[in-house]
Amino acid sequence: MTTDDLALRNALDTLVPLRDAAAPDWSAVLRRALDDLPATAVRRAPRRRLVLAATLALAAVVVAPVLAVGATHNWWQARSGGTVPEPVFVPVRGRPAGWVKATAGSWFVVYVKGGQGACGYTGASWRIALVETATLPARVVDDRAIGGAMCGNRVAWVRSGRFSDGKHDEVAFQLWQTPSLGATTYVYRVDGNRLTKLATFPGDTVTLKLGTAVVTYENPGRSPHGEREDTYRFANGSYRLVSKR
Amino acid sequence: MTIDDLEELYRTRYAVFLRVAEAIAGSRDVAAEAVNEGFAGAIRARGAFRGAGTIESWVWSCVVNAARSARRREPAPSLEHDEAHEPAAAVANWADDQIRSLVARLPERQRLALFLRYYADLEYREIADVLGVERGTVSATLHKAHAALRPHLQEVPR
Fold it and tell me: Is B74 or A104 the better-scoring residue by pLDDT?
C-alpha cells in the first residue's frame, strides 16, 4: 500500500468510521424478500392466511373446470405424469405440452394454441415460447409458431443443454406427427431473450451429443435415401451431414 | 447459491455492507434499510445469478443499487459540508468536513469505487463486477479519484 493509499484510507476512515454495527437482523431481510415473492413460494404471515385461503378457494372454483376439460381433451398427454410449473402455466397463452428449464432464469415451453374437435388439435397450431423468470412476474419474451397440429401429435421429449458447440444454452424437442408420418426434432439456441433455430432433424430417434446429432430410422423406408442412420456434425454455425449408413 | 449462503455473507460482513451503504446513502438508518433491501433483492433474484463473478460481488451490486435508490428517495447531506454543525464542532471537524466536501464532489463512479476499495477491501476485479465495468476502468477510475484527492489530502491537517 502506498503513502497515498494510507492517507486516503485514513481520510475515508474519518468520513464513515467502522463502528460496532447494530445486530444484523436476518429475519427482517427474509420478511422483506418473501413479501414480494409469489404466493406459492413463501410462508405467509398469519394475517394473510385468510386472504390466501379465499384466493385458493376462488382458484379451485376456476381451475377445477379447466383441469376437467383439459383431462377430457387430453391436453397434457405429453407430460401426463408431471405438474405444469407455474412459470409455464401462467404466462403462456395455450396448452403446455412440454417444458424444460432453459437457463437459470428462463423456461422453454412447447405448447398448443387454439384447436377443437375430439382430440383438441383440429385447427390448432404448435408453438414454442421462452418464458423469462429472472424477474417476477414471469413473462413470455419470445414466442413463435412451429406448424399446424393434428390428432395423433405428441411431444416426445424436451431437453436443454449445450449441444452444438458447448458454449451456448440450447433447447431441443421432438414432435411426433403421427406414428406413420414420423417425428421431427428441433434444436434452438437461447440467445438472451431470443430463440434462434439451429437445426431440424426428421427421423425417428435423435441423439444429441456435444457437436454431433445422430438420427436413426425405424426402417429404410422412413429415411430420405434408404439409410438407417445419419450423423450430423456441428461446424461453422450449423449442423452438416457427415455420414449415412 | 442458496439462501444459507446469503445469510452467512450477511452475518459475517454486515458491518462492512453497512459502512459502504452509509457512505452512499448518507445516513445510518437509511443504510441499514438499504442493506436489508439489497439482500432481500438478492434472495428474490438469486435465480438470475449465473456464476459470473463471485456471489459476494453480485450481492454487493444489489446492496450498492439499493443504497443508491435510497439516497435518491431520501437525499441526505451526508457527504456535503454540514452547515448545521455547532460552531465549535465545526472548527474541530474542519478536516473531516474538507474530506466530505472533496469526496462529495467526485463523480459517482469514483466515489463508489473508493468506497468499495477502501471500506469493503474489494479487489479491482470484484469492483468491476459490482459496477458493471472492465477491470481497467476501475483502475483508471481509482487513479482519477486519487489524483483529484491527493493534493488536498496533503493540505488537510490531521
Answer: A104
A115-139: per-residue pLDDT in tens? 877 777 888 899 999 998 887 778 8
What distance in Å separates the CA atoms of residue A18 and residue B22, rounded to the nearest whole number? Answer: 10
Q: Which of residues 108-167 of A touch B (CB under 8 A)?
A: 133-136
Determine, for residues A26 and B48 on separate chains, whether the beta-carbon distance falls below 8 Å.
no
Q: What does chain A come to in residues?
A: 245
Residue with cell 424444460: A100
> What's the rounded Cα separation, in Å, for the pair B53 and A46?
39
Contact B77, B30 (CB under 8 A): no
Is A28 an 8 Å CB contact of chain B? yes
Model pLDDT, residue A27: 86
Chain A: residue whose CA lies nearest to B43:
A33
pLDDT digits (tens, 9 = 90+) for A231-242: 999 998 899 999
The answer to whether the Cα torsion of A65, A71, A76, A82 is positive or negative is: positive
Q: What is the DSSP string of A201-244?
A: EESSEEEEETTEEEEE-SSGGGSTTS-SEEEEEEETTEEEEEEE
pLDDT (tens, 9 = 90+) of chain B, 158 residues, equals 678 888 889 988 898 999 999 988 888 888 998 999 999 888 887 776 766 678 888 899 889 988 888 887 766 554 444 444 444 454 446 666 777 778 888 888 999 999 999 889 999 999 998 888 889 999 999 999 888 888 777 554 44
Closest partner residue to B15 (CB to CB) among A18, A34, A37 is A18
Chain B contact for A41, CB < 8 A?
A: no
Rounded distance between C-alpha atoms, residue A111 and residue A233, angstroms: 29
Residues of chain B positioned with their CB less than 8 A from the CB of A15: 23, 79, 96, 99-100, 103
Cβ-based contacts of B36 with chain A (< 8 Å): 25, 28-29, 32
What CA–CA distance (Å, rounded) separates A174 from A183? 7
Q: Which of A11, A24, A29 sits opposite B99 (nearest CB)?
A: A11
* Residue the block writes with cell 433474484: B45
Residue where the block lists cell 478536516? B95
